[in-house]
Please model this.
Amino acid sequence: DTEVTQTPKHLVMGMTNKKSLKCEQHMGHRAMYWYKQKAKKPPELMFVYSYEKLSINESVPSRFSPECPNSSLLNLHLHALQPEDSALYLCASSQLHGQGNTIYFGEGSWLTVV
Amino acid sequence: GESVGLHLPTLSVQEGDNSIINCAYSNSASDYFIWYKQESGKGPQFIIDIRSNMDKRQGQRVTVLLNKTVKHLSLQIAATQPGDSAVYFCAENVREYGNKLVFGAGTILRVKS
Model:
C-alpha cells in the first residue's frame, strides 16, 4: 500500500468551478510532485516541490495552481479547467529531489471536467 | 528530445514462465532508472531501481539489467503470476532537465493462466 494519500479519489467539476486536490505523506520526504496521466499514456511531470519551495514548473497553465502548506501536504488548486484537462492526477514524494531518490506515488485523483 | 521507451506493446506470457520487458532510453546523461508497475485504476508502484554505475540489480523475483552502451533497460520477472498483469513503465532521471523523471510509453503484461 502506498503511503502517499490523495483525496478525493474521484472529482467531477464544471468549467467554472474551483476545486482542489489534496495529497499527504508522512514519510518525512522533502520532495513532492504532481503528475498528470491521460488514458493509456505515461505520467507527465507538472510540478516539483523541494523543501516546500516550487523548484520545477513544467510550463503548466495557470488554471492549475500548486501549493505546499508544509512538508507533509501538497495541494493542487483547479480553476476554469477545460474538458481536455480530464485525467488522473498523481501525487508523489521522495526523500529528496534528485538522483537515486525513489519517487513513490499515490493512487491518484480521477478528474472529469464537464 | 525527451523520449524514453517505445510504442505501447503488449507482452503475453503463460503463468509460470519468465517475462522480459524492454525499454530504450534516449538520454545518455541519465543517471538513475526506475521500473514501475501500474495496475488498472491505481497509481504507479515502485518495483526496482538501478543507478548508472551498475549493470544489474536483483530483487524478489525481479531483475533489472542496464546496458549503457546501447541505452537499453530490461526488467525480468521470474515465474510470472496472474497478479503481475499490469502496465510496466521504465523511467529515467535526467539530470540536465533538473533531475526530471521521464517515463517511457509503457508495456502491457498479460499473464495467461
In short: The first strand of chain B starts at residue 10 and ends at 14.
